[in-house]
Structures are given as structure tokens and as C-alpha cells.
Specification:
This protein is an alpha+beta fold and 311 residues long. Helix content is 23%, strand content 26%. The chain has a single domain, classed as 4-Layer Sandwich (Double-stranded beta-helix). The radius of gyration is 19 Å and the shape is globular.
Length: 311
């Protein structure tokens, strides 16, 4: 039986797992440990893996059902792997200009009615330096909110739109839209997490975009806080697996003149339930509505310029 080592990347999120060859691993007990590590740390990393497309898909199936990234409802702006509709290629040539895919804090496929939960990213070719990926804990972001703001957010749902994600960066294509609770509960641990992303979240359900803007911007500003995150430096053969319900991520664009090629796979797993915060919705009284209005007014008037000033 393989003996897994688990080394935390930071005090909040992320862990690197060693002592295992994923391409040949067939021990269900070890796979159980790996899945538990994902749920506990939000994102897990492996070095020195040798995963061709069939092997990458086999790894994905240990977590759930790999989902085709290319479909008519939300077409991907990047190419797939021929013969493997579940796999995307994130490839950038040395002379490429402009933004890289994912150059913003986001969570994958939040705009779908049933968002895919896990994302896997495998490094085929990476620059000697640069091209790191940053991760930020949405659980820590929720935990750091004041009790009053938690109560306000737990009564809200947010609208997420695919078109908002692509507009100005790629061909937007058709608009795909979904609504989800702003605060979700993770099914394995019961922990709560903030579920919004600057890539796609456009407003709160029942609010106008103008009314939503100030509070959403405040929530978006939580992701870059260093105490909530970790930074991963890729090597050829590195594999990252993250839980989109627990973490946001950000692709850095600092490797001009160098080639970077990655393969990405998303996996459908257990999801949060729509009644995640039912016990808190009953608290959406006149007092909480007043709190909500006060919070938005304070932020939009510039009384709170960034999250650190609220402490």
C-alpha cells in the first residue's frame, strides 16, 4: 500500500501530496485518503506525474464524472484534446499577446445550473519561472465576515452569467445564466463558503446591478488577501486538483517569451443543496434588510474602501 505524505502549502489552503504514482494507483483506500485531503485542504498538488489523456481521465473518474467542457450551451474559448471531449488544452506560445485564460479571481463554471465541482490541471510544458497559479479559500473568506454581514448574505442568492465571464476577453458566444446561494455549505464538512466570483457574478437575485455593485465589489476584494491563499509553482508533470466550492484561483501572466501548455479536466461530484442555509433564511427579517441596505450604502459611498479597513 502506498504511503502518502501530506505537506500543507499554507496555513489556510492547499497541500502537496507525495509518495504516490497516480497513473498506476489502484488502491481504493489510498484514493479515499486523496479525496479526503481535497475536501480538507481545498486544493491538492502532486509532482512528477506521467499522465497521458486516458490516465488523466482515469484519475478524474476517481473523484466523479468527468464532464465535457465543450457544449453548445457554454462553448469553451480554448481547444480540446482530439478524441477526448472532456479535456481542454490551455496552451500559450512565447510570442502570444494579451491576457491568459483565467487571469482574474474566479471559480470554474459557476454560471451553470449544476456547476462542476472539481477541476484538474496537469502541466505538460511550463516555463522555467512564472506562470504560477494562485488560490484563495472561500471558506476563510466567509469565516472572516462579521456576524451581521453573514446573516445578510445567507438570505441571498446571486446571478452568475457566462457572457459576463467572456465579454471583453474572448468571443462571448451565447449567454448562460444560473442563480445559486451566496453562502453554500460543503456536504462533507458542513463548513460554509462564500460562493461568488468576479468572473461571472453580476448581481443579487431581486436586486438591480447598480444596487448589487458595491457589496459584490467588497466580496470580490476578499480573494487577494494573502492570509486566505497560497501560490503554486508548476513543474512539468505537476497536477493540481481543486474544489471549486472551496477555492477561487488566478492564473498569473508573467512568462512572456516562454511556452506554457496545460491540460484541464472538470469533474462532477457531490454538490451543495439548495436548502443550504434554510435555517438562516428565517432570520431575513426587517432588521436584516436594514443591515443589508446600510452595508450597501456604506460601501458605495466609499466608507469602506477595502476589506482590511473594515477591521
Amino acid at each position: 500500500m502506498a504511503q502518502i505524505t501530506i505537506d500543507r502549502i499554507s496555513g489556510t489552503v492547499g497541500a502537496e501530496l507525495g509518495g504516490v504514482d497516480l497513473s498506476s494507483l489502484d488502491d481504493e483506500g489510498v484514493w479515499g485518503e486523496i479525496r479526503q485531503a481535497l475536501f480538507e485542504h481545498g486544493v491538492i498538488f502532486f509532482r512528477g506525474q506521467h499522465l497521458d489523456p486516458p490516465a488523466l481521465l482515469r484519475v478524474g473518474r476517481e473523484f466523479g464524472n468527468p464532464s465535457p467542457y465543450h457544449d453548445d450551451n457554454a462553448p469553451s474559448p480554448v481547444p480540446g484534446v482530439p478524441g477526448y471531449p472532456e479535456l481542454e488544452v490551455l496552451h500559450r506560445e512565447p510570442d502570444a499577446k494579451g491576457k491568459v485564460v483565467g487571469e482574474h479571481w474566479h471559480t470554474d463554471q459557476i454560471f451553470r445550473e449544476k456547476p462542476t465541482r472539481a477541476t484538474m490541471l496537469y502541466a505538460v510544458e511550463v516555463p522555467e519561472a512564472g506562470g504560477d497559479t494562485l488560490f484563495s479559500s472561500s471558506v476563510a473568506a466567509y469565516s472572516g465576515l462579521s456576524p451581521g454581514l453573514k446573516r445578510t448574505l445567507e438570505s441571498l442568492r446571486a446571478v452568475h452569467q457566462f457572457g459576463a465571464f467572456r465579454r471583453g476577453e474572448f468571443d462571448a458566444g451565447p449567454t448562460v445564466e444560473a442563480t445559486h446561494p451566496v453562502i453554500i455549505r460543503l456536504p462533507e464538512s458542513g463548513k460554509r463558503a462564500l460562493y461568488v466570483g468576479a468572473n461571472a457574478t453580476i448581481q443579487f437575485e431581486g436586486w438591480t446591478r447598480e444596487e448589487s455593485r458595491g457589496l459584490l465589489q467588497y466580496l470580490f476584494c476578499l480573494a487577494p488577501r494573502p492570509e486566505f491563499g497560497c501560490r503554486y509553482r508548476w513543474q512539468k508533470g505537476s497536477l493540481a486538483i481543486w474544489d471549486n466550492f472551496q477555492v477561487l484561483h488566478y492564473a498569473t501572466n508573467d512568462y512572456a517569451g516562454h511556452r506554457r501548455s496545460m491540460q484541464r479536466l472538470t469533474v462532477e461530484m457531490s454538490v451543495f443543496s439548495e436548502d443550504t442555509c434554510d435555517e438562516h433564511r428565517s432570520e431575513s427579517s426587517a432588521a436584516s434588510i436594514l443591515e443589508r441596505v446600510s452595508a450597501v450604502q456604506s460601501i458605495t459611498r466609499g466608507h469602506v474602501k477595502n476589506p482590511s479597513e473594515a477591521r
